[in-house]
Amino acid sequence: MAIAKAERLMNLALCLLGTRRPLSKRELRESIEAYLEAGNDDSFNRMFERDKDDLRELGLVIATVENMDGEVGYLARRDSNRLPPITLDAEEAAALGLAAKVWQQARLAGAASGALQKLRAAGLPEDVDPYEAHSALEPRIPVHEAAFEPLMLACRDRRPVVFEYRKASAARPEPRHVEPWALECWRGHWYLAGFDRGRGAERVFRLSRITGKVRSRGTGFTAPVPDVVTVRETVAGWAGEIADRSALIRLRSGAGYPLRAKAVKVRELGDGWDELEIPYGHGLDAWLVEFGPDVVVLEPAELRADVVDRLRAVAKG
Fold this sequence. Notes:
Elements: H1 2-18, E1 23-24, H2 25-31, H3 33-36, H4 41-57, E2 63-66, E3 72-75, H5 90-102, H6 109-121, H7 148-157, E4 161-165, E5 174-186, E6 189-196, E7 201-206, E8 210-216, H8 231-238, E9 243-252, H9 257-262, E10 265-270, E11 273-281, H10 284-289, E12 295-299, H11 301-316
Antiparallel strand pairs: 1-3, 2-3, 4-5, 4-8, 5-6, 6-7, 9-11, 9-12, 10-11
């Protein structure tokens, strides 16, 4: 069975590498004997999807192309599957090993291990062990969100996705149709950056606010992918961390510790309330809403109005 699968994968890889145009599932089925013997269409489809995923896991870059008639085809472009000679010194190998350790407790542990094995085969210095502990650093990035893996694959394959997303100021989630660009972890939370087709603009989504399943929708991006995706800077800006002015708020005693940590000044008012001066930047209103009745905005007036508008929207549902 293992030999038969290996032969089937090899034949599929040769077909995808040898074609100058995208091949449909029908054409691939007619070209590979094992697929002709698959029986019914459901068996073939399951076998083909598993084989395609296995080849991608092995490192083959398979492009998915949709023609004018809406038919989906596949090919592996030679320029996308040709790597230059890899030479790594000891410091570079140690950096890769440290990066791999980050994923040892996450869903990418197998992929990280496999990548290092491929680098070893491609010329990683024999006297360097990427997994060897050269320091006391033992980094870990936890991945608890179910949306992480399908979004990671969608970013890799350049596939648009659809998911339900609940904003901090909304009572119910809304459907979002997104062309995913990049995933990044910032301060313990994972974020997705991409082009929101419904809004017609770049957006950043916090994975913990994605509800339900992430589903693929069609192929091909309608917007160009930027050379540099600034996820952290965007999130920092939306969180009000890039600020050039201050806001004055009342905060209930014993509540809102994240706000207290950012406060420039804190003054006790008595009767269970404190007055805080905090940095004011874009997105601060959305953050303040999360603290509900424990926060009252004193100034500036536009921030107070934005917070009131968001609270009214939540109340209306």
